[in-house]
Amino acid sequence: QAFYMEVVFVKVWERNKFIEVEEPRFLDSVVKEFRRSVIDMRYWIATVELEETKNPIKKIGLKVLRKTTTKNSS
Question: What is the pTM of this model?
Answer without folding.
Answer: 0.59
